[in-house]
Amino acid sequence: MKGLFITLEGGEGAGKSTQSRRLKSALESAGRDVVLTREPGGTPEAEKIRDLLVQRDGGNWTPMAECLLFFAARQMHVETLIKPAIAAGKIVICDRFTDSTIAYQGYGHGFDISTIQQVAKLSLGDFKPDLTFILDLPVADGLARSLKQKDMAGGKENTEDRFKKLKIDFHEKLRQGFLTIAKHEPSRCVVVDAGGSADDVYNVIWTRIQNAL
Ligand code: TMP
User: Fold this and answer.
1) pTM of the model
2) Ligand 1: centre distance to CA 1 (Å)
3) pLDDT digits over 35-45, tens only?
4) Is 121 exposed, middle or buried (0-12, 13-18, 19+ CB in 10 A)?
5) Assigned CATH topology for domain 4-212
6) Residue 120 C-alpha to ligand 1 middle, in angstroms?
7) Which of 9, 20, 38, 54 to mutate to test the pocket of ligand 1 (most atoms within 8 A of CB)?
8) Contact 30, 157 (CB under 8 A)
């Protein structure tokens, strides 16, 4: 069977993790071998880099150093986990990939997008996902959802205060960034309205994957 590389992308609260897990079990029920992984991370080395990048005390990186760290993690992940799994006929589902660097570091934080693309080319060559689902949702809805999840996990801060801290305009740039990426690569990227129920979102993704298989 032919391997396939599928990525899920989107901003806060879009439901990527829920959809990736659901997809994995549906594909396994259909008899496929599936690897579910995430970025930054996915291998022991890349998970160490994840700690440097996403933890509060992980370091205060310059934009270029941060970009290189994302791609150092990604290069390890692609060479040691993703490519071998695809070559073995497996389906790899990855929660975030290069589009997240373009959206977060590029569109969101303002780091030069053509520089990110050059680093991508240098570290990954022409390797790209076969199919990317961009889970799209109005910023306020996504942030409200992710705050609700934190509340359920026992968060103490007042919701409104935390909401303000999340810098709505940054998330708006992020959302527009993902939509622009999708516009530039319509054959790879599928924008999915993530505002509906988890079942509706899943059905859209599942139909598109069945066409790809
Ligand atoms: P997660 O919350 O989806 O696990 O992602 C971890 C954080 O890392 C999230 O805030 C998005 C950010 N990130 C980037 O800024 N650039 C990237 O290239 C990736 C993969 C993630």
Assistant:
1) 0.93
2) 31
3) 999 999 999 99
4) exposed
5) Rossmann fold (3.40.50)
6) 16
7) 54
8) no
